[in-house]
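Q: Could you write out the predicted structure for this multi-component system? I'm mainly interested in how the pieces pack against one another.
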Amino acid sequence: MRTIKVTVNGESHQAEVPDHRTLLDFLRQDLELMGTKSGCETGDCGACTVLLNGKAVNSCLVLAAEADGKEVLTVEGLAYPNRELHPLQEAFVEHGAIQCGYCTSGMLLSAKALLDEIPRPTEEEVKEALAGNLCRCTGYYSIIKAVQAAAEKMNR
Amino acid sequence: MKKAYVTVGKSVTRLDARDKVRGVATYIVDMKFSGMLHGKVLYSKFPHARIVKIDTSRAKRLPGVKAVITGEDMPFLHGEALYDTPFLAVGKVRYMGEAVAAVAAVDEETAEEALDLIEVEYEELPAVFNPGDALKQGAPILHEKLGEYYHPPVITPVPGTNICNHTKIRKGDIEKGFKEADHIFEDTFTTQMTQHGTIEPHAAICMVTPDGKLTLWGNNDSPYRARREIAVALKIPLHRVRLVGAPYIGGNFGGKGGLKAEAIAIALAWNYRGRPIKIVNTREEEFTSTVVRHPTVITLKTGVKKDGTIVARQTTCLWDTGAYAEKGPTVSRMGGASSAGVYNIPHVSIDSYCVYTNNQISGALRGYSGPQTAWAYESQMDMIAERLGLDPVQMRLKCAYDNGSVHAGGQVLSDVTLKTCLNKVVEAMKWDKPSPLTPYRGRGVAFGERFIKTPFASSAFLKINEDGTVDLISSTSEVGQGGETTMCQIAAEELGVPLASVSKASPDTAYTPFDESTTSSRSTFHMGNAIRMAARDAKEQILQMAATQMKVPVKKLTIVDGNVQVVGKPETATPLGQVMRRRYGASGGVLGRGFYFPDGLAPEGEYFTFNCIFWMYCAQGAEVEVDPRTGKVTVLKMVAAHDVGTAINPKSCIEQIAGGVSFGIGFTFYEDLIRENGKTMNPSFLSYKMPTTMDMPPLDPYLVEPHCEQGPFGAKAVGEPSSVPTAPAIANAIANAIGVRITDLPITPDKILAALKNKT
Amino acid sequence: MVRKLRKFNYSRPGTVAEVVSLLKDYQEKASLLAGGTDLLVFMKLGGKNPKHVIDMKGITVLDHLSWTPADGLRIGCLTTLQSILRHPLIREHFPMLEQAAKALGHPQIRSRATVAGNICTASPSGDCAPSLLALDARVTVASPAGERTIPVREIFAGPFKTILAPTDVVTEIQVPALPPHSAGSYRWQPKITAVDETLVGVAAVVTLSDGGKTIKDVRIGLGSVAPTPMRAPRAEEFLRGKQITDSLFDEAAGIAAGESQPRTRAEYRREITRVLVEQALKEAVDRASRNGGNR
Ligand SMILES: Cc1cc2nc3c(=O)[nH]c(=O)nc-3n(C[C@H](O)[C@H](O)[C@H](O)COP(=O)(O)OP(=O)(O)OC[C@H]3O[C@@H](n4cnc5c(N)ncnc54)[C@H](O)[C@@H]3O)c2cc1C
């Protein structure tokens, strides 16, 4: 067991966690932030993607202990503090880039990491940025369009 | 002329979209109860073995372990078509994904640890891994008691063999047909084992009270069907079993029916009562122990005239259904019915065999046999056209079903739109223009057909609340398809209220009325009809009340945009809520009821008839480029035209096509669950590959929207056909590009390169 | 079977000396943690079950990347693939390493995965090895016995096996600067989908002479075609000193393909090796001829 201090979605948390706890389980079990999903536990599907100090990571392959002293952003913290939805979320809604929704949180966070780094991505760059997020429902078409639309909106 | 609708036909925003982007949509994996235990499963070490002894004593002593059970503790059989499946293996194991023991403990880690302490002694039995071998004389028999299993009459197992269903269809006189033919072509096509790969795994929470009342929370696509399966298996009345659907289900595609994670949760809870027990599958369990798409071997022997007229077709279909029947018998039955293709053929003979093997269990996967049969009949169509020197599009247009054609299963068809769909595709592909394609580029088309399971019922209630808003009470599950939105659109349209005032919650067999299933692309049509009836019923009741209040004859009243008004007199508009209040004060409610069952299509009590309420039709086209040095195929474009009837929500329909095509792409090129002696070699997303963002080709989707007379607002269906014709369309394009014909899926670059080498 | 992580003790020392001393105590009971994209997967699969997990990420100085003409490229053992991607120094001097980074995993993996971890895992299909072999890279290793330098080509002992002792820590990777008129390329083909393990990975580094008409020197690294990443010495020998002709690279590629020893999908892999060796050589020569080379 160890005590970690993690800022999650702007809120700082101090928690006792077992050393072998993953960040994913920490978020879901300890903080009860259920928006981050588990799909494979081995980094292949991207459903558990969160931002760790601004970078998209598979939270199933990060130990909670490794997040000590760091900032984590999950889907629950994506909306701007004074806004209802983040432009990416708005674009996903408008473009119907959602079916079952299970991959959606991870998709949004990968897309956020992309737009933070490349505000005006090409279609190819969007595809590359989302390459680690499997979606079984949509064939990705609307998702790619939604990310591009959000980028456009945010650059306006 | 199409009627102008207010809500129907509009690409309204999905009602679940905002919750889903916020991460607040709840799935079964997110649910927990106080006192909840976690279950884990020990699986068989062998594909076929007698269980000699199981010692659970050490596991039981591990602190934190509450229950350890084996098949002996759960002496019941369940199943979807045939009651052949134990909850955990009893006496013997029939595949490596079979549960041998299960543990319930205070947390997952402890349950996993306990599994290591269970000792099982096996005596290995000879095993069989492909349906051809399983049919041979002397093959190991998986189910010695096949003849004793309970099953409905449409299923015809052959006791003493591994055949759990043999569907036999005869139309005309096949021998006569072959005699009339100028050419007879015989080709065999095979498909591989694929899996649903929903990102959300199967999961369930079950609690059984000491008195035996069972509640199951889960992501089962069809709570009523599962409830029936559980009640029949446990020999208890239906009302003692309650299924509660999680608010949202993370993908389905036919995989979340029957009892998967549910079976283990039930078995543990049945034996350890009074506490909820949760099972969440790992990804590996998804691949090894839930359900997959049938691998098939389909042989088509086809007699044709020189001009391309097809006179006779004999099909032999082998469906590798794995260790237990699941939906295999009905998949093979309906697959058999479609295996001769979508063509006018006077003489047809079909033999479709669903065969047990020691592989994982096969069932429904987006298409319910459609992708496998289309792979055969649409590939052979191009092969024949090429051998006869005919244009594959012309040959299809010449032979395809029309209204009035007689289906292989005997039904006289109506609402057939195959040619409309194909014409749309070839128009988009500019087929009539000389091919603009450079060397190594080619194009191909394929038809697709998919039945709708018939006859099955759906029912719905519409509760009008005190303020005039509406609760739609229906057991359709939101699995990602957009059912929640579509159903609310139908309710809003029929009742005359804005979409925003209709809500639909998830199914709960204690409250939401009967629905057979959220499968078979059937919900928009069946549940849609039930909802329309319920809305009409509610509307009638409301208008009766309003007629008294407004002192106007009922006939003169209607509801527009949430207001009751005299037809043609908007100034009389009275909000629904006000009508309710006037009658009931602050309380009261109205309940509309709807029940839809397609009558007259099958003899009483029979189901899965070949007389379908309708068939779904579509066509797709592909343009490809092949790299002759690496054998890699790039799909330059997919075109898909699908008859959906009236599109209740066009955007949702397009999404279904896009998703279906991505399944088709995976089926064509990538997905292949590989087994060696019954062991699954790639049970992870690392090595079982589904298309990623970087793999999807550009797509041109088209909706073909003929008004369907019996459908709600003219709607038919869309979910499954979209993955039916993709593979043969691509294979035909590859053959067109490089003159190489691949008949065994998946199409890998290795196969293409080898075939190219053999050619030169 | 993927399971929950089993119990272990986690520590995050702040210096290499501390890491070495912990390793000395724990020996094979400990595992070093860099990005964790291999280690945590192996642990969940039950392939590794360390009692102690030593996270190196507390030693922030090990996350660095620098280039000087004298020292060449130096990559700290905590430097991630994400840092390699789009890095101006990499783009300027070793674009082939950006290609390798692009081949490895997907964004979430690259933001954690380290180059050093990729080498230490010693997967036959690891995407960094072919380039590092072709670039004649070395690693610096700290251990209880002191520091030493090992050429990358000596590290691999078998599939997922290195010659490193449980107490060895790779602290840095060094890539010598290339002579003038040199450049490299990495070409790969994934196994099945676009985002996949590498079926065949080929790195080529060439030095041109004679105004770009002759191959003065060449090194070829092959990945995923043998139990370990390997060089293609016969193909290199064949090319050295040869004038560039239309058919030269195809011939060399044929020789390299002959040197490969793939097991599964063997025939196809050999075919692809041939295609990729030719592509990599061509691209390397192309780069070397441009701007006087040195990439
Ligand atoms: C989804 C997914 C996709 C992947 N795709 C690819 C791919 O396409 N190509 C590819 O090559 N790899 C791939 N990998 C594997 C992995 O990401 C890489 O090998 C990565 O570079 C490992 O680095 P790491 O920092 O994460 O290593 P870790 O997991 O932290 O460590 C790996 C091993 O090396 C040891 N180690 C780490 N650093 C040191 C050191 N400095 N000194 C001594 N020992 C050390 C560790 O103890 C451990 O045994 C993939 C992995 C996943 C999960």
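A: Regarding packing and overall arrangement: Residues 2-77 of chain A form a domain with the Ubiquitin-like (UB roll) fold (CATH 3.10.20.30).
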